[in-house]
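Quick entry between incubations.
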Amino acid sequence: MSFSKEEIAQRIAKEIKDGYYVNLGIGIPTLVANYIPKDINIVLQSENGLLGMGPFPFEGEEDADLINAGKQTITTLPGSSIFDSAMSFGMIRAQKVDLTILGAMEVSENGDIANWKIPGKMVKGMGGAMDLVASAKNIIVAMQHVNKAGESKLLPKCTLPLTGVKCIKKIVTELAVMDVLPEGGFKLLERAPGVSVDFIKQSTLGRLLIEGDIPEMKLN
Amino acid sequence: MINKVVSGAEEAIRDIPDGATLMLGGFGLCGIPENCINALVDKQIKDLTCISNNAGVDDFGIGLMLKQRQVKKMISSYVGENAEFERQLLSGELEVDLIPQGTLATRCLAAGYGMPAIFTPAGVGTEVAEGKEIRNFDGKDYLMEYAFDADFALVKAWKGDTAGNLIFRSTSRNFNPVMAMAGKITIAEVEELVEAGELDPDYIHTPGIYVHRIFQGKDYEKRIEQRTVRKVH
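Done. Structure below.
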């Protein structure tokens, strides 16, 4: 059984350590916030200028001046701080943010990522994605292993315009957890329950490195 | 002291000519200079180059200026929420320069800090790097990006005083302080304008030296783009 989006988020949440400052992208990464273990404290950074992003407000308590980078109404928490956009990207560039989790259209075996532009389609822009991938010390990609057309999104080389080069360290999909090795290649670490190594191999166009028995992903 | 206080948006934008380069503060619709945008729409100033993180929505914010074809070029990081924008872009009527959000903010900062350029890793190895100078520091490549050169910066603050000092509220701060520093002429609209001396100097976000004109705004709509709430359990 391949994982749902929620289960991908749940698996990624296990990578987060106590005290981390974390930036979550839009899509599956946003769901990660729902699965942070109760016994750890982390601080979510929203690149429009907030550290300590809290949950959505209750109805009637929405504040037009308080939004996240997805433009959703949110709340602050005890210990939150507000700053301008230059400082926000300053702390990202200076690697003060411990972990960045974001989605992708394609990742290559040398850690390149493409997630902002499909030639011929309306281009919305890169937002903060290029700044994040260029500077973050630790980036996990949360995405589907194959696209809607059934084609692998883990490639020898990205075909879409790049967002950043040699920057992705780890990928979690509905099928597998993989490290991107510094020398190149996707190293298979875990597989979704019931998903065979062969199936993951068939779904991965880039070089997949398999050593020994590959355990099933555990969510707890 | 020179009087910085003007009667309203109409007076504040009085000398913005066709073809001017403007910075507009805000992130999405949060913290945008609503009054100044409405005045630019009323006056139908044309051929504008707008530096702004986003381009509003069809019927609010910069979208109102796009609808009247007042914008020649947008310099933004993300422009997804506007059908008229898309139409003009695809038909070639509108020029668009998409740049990384941190690069956008830091090019404003550089202008306000009197630095001609910055070095950032954002965009290295991508099409953003095309034609740009690359420098290697400690084994890592950086792009040289120039400070912005804007004729006017239009910003929105929560409180301001007659000396031009500004205080922003919550995440409506976003690009406003760095754009306020970057404009050759900076126009600030505020929700509450008070006399100099009424704001605590320790709590000023933007010192008045950066602000040339200030006025008390009115009729703020403060539209929410993605109203999201949680269920009461």
